[in-house]
Amino acid sequence: MLAPKKTKHRKWQVGRRQGARRTKPETRGITVAFGTFGLKATTQARVTSNQIEAARRALVRAAGKSAKVWVRIFPDRPFTKKPSEVRMGSGKGDVQGYVMDVRPGRVLFEVDGAPEAMAREALRKANTKLPLKGKVIARE
User: Fold this and answer.
1) What DSSP line would sit under the chain, residue for residue?
2) pTM (whole model) above 0.85
3) If 54 and its partner were Cys, which of 20, 24, 28, 129 is the partner (CB 3.0–4.6 Å)?
């Protein structure tokens, strides 16, 4: 799964989760830059490295051999979890994996070299593996 090679801080602090009303749209990574079709997030979610890999596999399999796929997100935020049935206190849990905070408007995946119908279907299948809603967009 995806994980950073090196991090400055092993554990991050939690931060403040803002409601759906106040989730600001993304300002970076909002256009299709490499391929001809892309999957754009329309809701906010934390996407884990396992979910990104599952979506990538579904996309590559459905797009065909001639297609080129770009993954435009990378999970660099560690999340921690305490073991089950452990009492409260005694510090923060161990790092379980890495996530990326995806805000509305971010392009997650891009595809090139596949027919339009096949590319749209492949991106739709990849979207089902993710915990957010997305739409398929084409390059302007």
Assistant:
1) ----S--S-SS-----PPPSTTPPPP-SS-S--SSSEEEEE-S-EEEEHHHHHHHHHHHHHHH-TT-EEEE-----EEEEEPPTT--S-SS--EEEEEEEEE-TT-EEEEEESS-HHHHHHHHHHHHTTSSS-EEEEE--
2) yes
3) 129
